[in-house]
Amino acid sequence: MNNFLSLTHIIVEIATVICLAAISVSFILLLFRIVSGPTNADRAVALDSMGMNMMGIAALMAILIPTTKLNDVILLIGILLFIGTLAVAKYLEKGVIIDRNLD
Amino acid sequence: MSNLAVLPIIIPLIAGIILAFFPKKLALVRTLTKVFIIGNLAVAGFSAWHVFNHGSIILETGDWAAPYGIIIVADQLSVLLVLTTNIMAAACAFYAPYSLPDRKERYYFYTFFFFLITGVSGAFLTGDIFNLFVFFEVLLMASYALIVLGGDKVQLRESVKYVFINLFSSMLFVTAVGFLYGTVGTVNMAQIAQRVQEVDQQGILTAIGILLFFVFAVKAALFPLYYWMPKSYAVPNPVISALFGALLTKVGIYSIIRVFSLIFIHRIDLTHEVFIWIAGLSMIFGVIGALSTNNIKLIIAYNIIPAIGFILWGIGVFNQEAVSGAIYYLIHDMIIKASLFLLVGTIAYAAGTSDLRKFSGLIHYYPFLGWLLFVSGFVLAGIPPFSGFIGKLLLLKGSLADEKVAVVIIALLSSLLILYSIMKIFIRGFWGEKDDTFEPKPVKGRTAPVVALLALSVFLGIGAEFIYPSVESISRYLLDPANYINAVLEG
Amino acid sequence: MYKPNDLIFRTTTSLIAFILLGFSIYLLLAGHNSPGGGFIGGLMTSAAIILMYMAYGSDILRKILPVNYRMLIPTGLLIAAGTGIGSFLFQQPFLSHTYNHFHLPVFGDLELATAMLFDFGVYFTVLGVTVTIILSIAEDR
């Protein structure tokens, strides 16, 4: 039983490290997309996915350390990301973020 | 009564917060400002009296013991400077309603004014080098707001320079504090001083000392680093210039005095020798700047640089008389610079321009202003029996005792030129052709604070016998770091 | 005039804004010993308010939330500074804080610290500053 637990422990650890590496690669690709992105919409989407990757990294770190305190942080990143993406999307569509009167 | 030490920081903070609730009700705001500043002056005076009679007040905030918690140290030097700060702040508060347009006063001027006083008093009173950084930031934030207040074009151009140079030096400051913490493992100034004597690798400490000196020299506008200062101090309103000229650079030089008399005294032959040369060069270049311009506000702003040079000279020589002279000169200069900035602001308002080539013969319309300028020129240059003379005399005696003759000659020569640069305003602006089309404006409310400051400054000279003993005891206290260390760590 | 179809946005906003406000209160109260505190709580609340501004426009929001955010800044500062000065009343050094355990009817045993009051001050200051900055940039016409 004990052997089995330590085996799963090792598997989880290895899997986490592999995931971290994969996310880092995706970060680099997304950075390229942000810099080169032909349109602003591409850049917005790339920024959004970058934020998702950030949440992923925080979650993986929470597994590695291990701690539960990072859960709030993940939620926080998600919310700020949501609002940021909304603002960018609204800007791209209308040119204004906070209008005076919508009706 | 240990909370007495923190009151000069707290009262302006609370005052600034309260005034931020109703910036638009100008009459109420002005009255409250005067009430608060007089109250703060009284508290500062009382704490000065208390410290001079019963010894330093050490406040461990939050009840955390000395090397671990943040401490506020009200020793004789700090309370004297806090008192001087409050005196000149009171003069500025009484001058401000006449000088600032109502529009600018409504942009939270008085709030930032009080936050500036908070930062300055905090920087004087703190006993912790990281908190020195924090209070520097407090006063810089307030000064950024004050320098762009109103948003005129020329103000914005100069303030960009000001903000960038100060951000850069703040960055270096926090880096230097980080190095210091890494080397000696504490940020409490008394404990740093204690450990600096024990560390065997003193080379790195000297390097950190020079880095800190660089930071403070940027803030104090010393020789190679003064280029940002004169113009950005000359463009804002006279009240704001007076606050900046009399307080911000003096906080920088105060930090040099504190740090280089308490902490970095292990290589006096290296660091303090350099100070003397920087001081001499500051005098020369500052005076050249003051002579080169025809803008009366710029003349006064350039005159800050040699004054800072004189104070640094005292630290460089570093004996009893020279340090007394430096402290005397520091206090004298805070008061006279504030009064000169306010006076020149008044003259520029009265003449309608600050360009010396565009007005003359003002003495026919404003004889009182003219003679005020005449007297303050004498005070600034140090003609006996005024207060500048006492400070310079002590500095001269101290450095002649150490056989540093070259800097003495530079200092005497530059004093003469300082006198000339002020007299230039008097000769060109007040003498000369009377302009018959000129319409005089009322300046009564503006002259009262100037007269008060000038009277105090004259008293500093004539009543030197009352003040000199306390200055001498301060310098004796500064020259032996054990006093400070024992007061903080064992008191 | 061009009219966007904001239906989804508005529907989700009415839901998400309240989740955000609740989360911000949680963060504010969670502080002191775990991640959170007045600063991040204030940021979250201002995020919720900005979200509502984006969805409904500033005219409507000014009717719904008639708050002068500029007034929140000195209020928060006063609370924060007041917790420091409060220690004067008990003959303690400036900024002294204390805590105790309380039995409250719903929450049970609770540890309450005066440092939380300081966090409330920070919360209001951050909320006021952030919303003031964003609105004054956005409404620059």
Automatic annotation (TrEMBL), chain A:
The keyword Transmembrane helix appears for this protein: yes
Transmembrane portions of the chain: 6-32, 44-67, 73-92
Gene Ontology terms, MF aspect: sodium:proton antiporter activity
UniProt keywords, alphabetically: Antiport, Cell membrane, Ion transport, Membrane, Transmembrane, Transmembrane helix, Transport
Main location: membrane
Domain of life: Bacteria
Statement: the UniProt record of this protein carries the keyword Transport: yes
Localization, UniProt: Cell membrane
GO cellular component assignments: plasma membrane
Entries under Pfam families matching the protein: MrpF_PhaF
Membrane topology designation: Multi-pass membrane protein
Recorded family membership: Belongs to the CPA3 antiporters (TC 2.A.63) subunit F family.
NCBIfam families recorded: PRK12600.1
This protein's name: Na(+)/H(+) antiporter subunit F1
Automatic annotation (TrEMBL), chain B:
Listed GO biological process terms: ATP synthesis coupled electron transport
Keywords linked to the UniProt accession: Antiport, Cell membrane, Membrane, Transmembrane, Transmembrane helix, Transport
Pfam families according to UniProt: Proton_antipo_M
GO cellular component, one term: plasma membrane
Keyword DNA repair: no
Protein location: Cell membrane; Membrane
Bilayer topology annotation: Multi-pass membrane protein
NADH:quinone oxidoreductase/Mrp antiporter transmembrane domain mapped to chain residues: 128-416
GO molecular function ontology, one term from the record: NADH dehydrogenase (ubiquinone) activity
Membrane-spanning parts: 6-23, 35-52, 64-95, 107-126, 132-151, 163-184, 204-227, 239-268, 274-291, 298-315, 327-351, 363-386, 406-427, 448-468
InterPro entries: CPA3_Na-H_Antiporter_D, NADH_UbQ_OxRdtase, ND/Mrp_TM
Domain of life: Bacteria
Family: Belongs to the CPA3 antiporters (TC 2.A.63) subunit D family.
NCBIfam families (UniProt xref): PRK07691.1
Entry protein name: Na+/H+ antiporter subunit D
Organism in which the protein naturally occurs: Lentibacillus salicampi
Organism classification: Bacteria, Bacillati, Bacillota, Bacilli, Bacillales
UniProtKB/TrEMBL annotation, chain C:
Annotated Na+/H+ antiporter MnhB subunit-related protein domain residues: 8-132
Keyword Membrane part of the UniProt annotation: yes
Protein topology in the membrane: Multi-pass membrane protein
InterPro entries, per database record: CPA3_antiporter_subunitB, MnhB
Keyword Cytoplasm annotated: no
Entry's localization field: Cell membrane
Residues annotated as transmembrane: 7-29, 35-56, 68-90, 110-138
Cellular component GO terms, alphabetical: plasma membrane
Keywords: Cell membrane, Membrane, Transmembrane, Transmembrane helix
Family stated for the protein in its record: Belongs to the CPA3 antiporters (TC 2.A.63) subunit B family.
Protein name as annotated: Na(+)/H(+) antiporter subunit B
Natural source organism: Lentibacillus salicampi
Lineage: Bacteria, Bacillati, Bacillota, Bacilli, Bacillales
